[in-house]
């Protein structure tokens, strides 16, 4: 178990009994030299064990506590928790070791068979469970795999096999923490994949470029010049934009779609003239914004003179390329995408309240209805297939087009025709304001509301925050207000897989747990107006509540503000894995003429400790490191994520045998593939989210299960080691706060177990 300890023990503040307390009930402890320890030694051992638990040293705490030979309930209770935890950790390590040897063997076998993509898949699995990841990556067989894979990827590119090339670059990026050279290669082939998807047989490319205008692009470049967090390199911006034009011309899908690109002479003329401008830019000592604008205008003119692509497409692709040299979070939100973007940040929308996917049969399928929404009240269920809207077949529709068709003005009607088994059902639904839930609990009650208790007997609650939207903190406060009268004594705040959101919500959430004047976050940009310091404005309503914050490598942005503020102020303990490293602030800027907007990175944010741990290309240190590091392997992470996802579903669940891999997931509120938002990593997986597996042969390694099935090594599917660690931490902490000494624990309990006995001398 990895540990990164920065947590100082909580003070033991309850009254220590010294008079009239019987120490009957436990025996003396033998010191290491064989002599009998004094009567105070059991208390010393108890306190030291609690201290070790607060630091995540659970194994050492268990070993120490085993020396206390006491029948007192609290000692045996804590010892039992620690013993069970260590059994779980030992089992995890044994499985990790077995999997490592197995996956390394599979990878080496694939290398010999020159199946580089499959070898990389197995290498990633091995790295996930390696006790020393760096040592594994530095082995001869890994160096050979990298070299062979790069040669294979180059061949795939020449043959326009973009997906195969992408898989290799993405896997190398996962193995080597997105090394910049792999990321650049990956982005190039992703452009081709995006263009292939954009101009595919069932594409909606015309919808995507609606109302795209050059003057919006020009306005965006001007805002970048004055307000981007760093001085922008317009030479790199111009080069990237022109390179994008050449990638567009090279796209076989685009050539099939547009006559101009299909004409070899016209396409060659376009490429030669764009290439000339690109060469001039590359040879120029510097390029400013005005020169960048002039070159882009010239590219638009060349298009008109040659291949005659729609100007909206040329402008969109120029900007897509030109933003590549900037950070990953600066983007133009064109009119066709603004509505979905606004829904995501606003936290509500007008619709019927369903989450939908496009399944493998190219049907629009309901993932789940949403809480207290028209579809749920009418009886729409997970697994239902939508075949028509208002009597019009939606066969061949993209998910975004289905969303646009279903949503509409408030209090208007829409009829969904749904196939359930062999039956077709019409649901006549009124469009209403649907609230997107970002605050969720541990499991569903029979009435479909959330049960927030993880250990109700001891008053430990679990709250999961999926993103930071306008209503998030208000919802959290309402949940806590509901739990307090029921005996809330400790809280697990789960920010895993939370991509972030609104800065003010992160500030307000942090302030709930902090004291007056505690530092939360500061921001600093190139423009002084971006500089601000946000401290806690008063005593937080939960400033004394024992707290654990869970994070992982998909916790980003606002999640990192909250977890960083809790950690740096030593207000609670952060458990899990290093966070994503998005320490940047974006402003949403309305562009000049239409509904287009520029999401522009204007500042970096800094934790109370004064550091900004943004993940720059090539960075060795980034993100919020947990106080207690509990790393999950891929299987464990998947099982934890899938368990939370299944709890989100309302109504009857789809039978396991009928489940399919999702190709595209959206709700009529937002695109669920973007649930991971800006924090979404290219992790070497297929677009449907399932890890590639070996081809079907009789060899043992080819029988590896997909991630939507139980893994073959017997890990419990419902296990979540990070939540288990948080629960153990809070249980021990609450016992220790109530019983700072064994003498206090030996006092006769009151019949009301929730109230401590008052000590009297």
Number of helices: 25
Q: Indicate the CATH architecture of the domain at 439-647.
A: Alpha-Beta Complex
Mean pLDDT metric:
81
Please write the CATH class name of the domain at 439-647: Alpha Beta
What do you see in this structure?
α2 packs across α3, α11 crosses α16 and α21 runs parallel beside α22. With 761 residues, this protein is α+β, with helices and mostly antiparallel strands. The strands form 5 sheets. Strands 3, 4, 5, 6, 7, 8 and 23 form a 7-stranded antiparallel beta sheet that branches. Strands 10, 13, 14, 15, 18, 19 and 22 form a 7-stranded mixed beta sheet that branches. The protein has 25 helices and 23 strands. The longest helix has 40 residues. Among the domains are: 125 residues; 93 residues, Roll (Pdz3 Domain), CATH 2.30.42; 209 residues, 2-enoyl-CoA Hydratase, Chain A, domain 1 (Alpha-Beta Complex), CATH 3.90.226.
Outline of the structure:
This protein has 761 residues and is of the alpha+beta class.
Keywords:
761 residues; alpha+beta; Pdz3 Domain; 2-enoyl-CoA Hydratase, Chain A, domain 1; seven-stranded antiparallel sheet; seven-stranded mixed sheet; 23 strands; 14% strand; globular; disordered N terminus; disordered C terminus
Reconstruct the topology from this structure:
Blueprint: H1 41-54, H2 58-65, H3 73-112, H4 116-129, H5 133-137, H6 140-158, H7 162-175, H8 180-198, H9 205-208, H10 214-227, H11 234-250, H12 252-257, H13 259-262, H14 264-283, H15 289-305, H16 311-322, E1 331-333, H17 335-346, E2 348-351, E3 354-358, E4 364-369, H18 374-378, E5 385-389, E6 392-393, H19 399-406, E7 413-420, E8 423-430, E9 432-435, E10 439-440, E11 443-444, E12 450-451, E13 453-455, E14 460-465, H20 472-483, E15 490-494, H21 503-513, E16 519-525, E17 532-535, E18 547-551, H22 558-568, E19 573-576, E20 584-590, E21 597-606, E22 628-629, H23 634-648, E23 664-667, H24 721-738, H25 742-745
Parallel strand pairs: 14-15, 15-18, 18-19, 19-22
Antiparallel strand pairs: 1-21, 2-9, 3-4, 3-23, 4-5, 5-6, 5-7, 7-8, 10-14, 11-12, 13-14, 16-17, 16-21, 20-21
Helix pairs in contact: 1-2, 1-24, 2-3, 3-4, 3-24, 4-6, 4-7, 6-7, 7-8, 11-14, 11-15, 11-16, 14-15, 15-16, 21-22
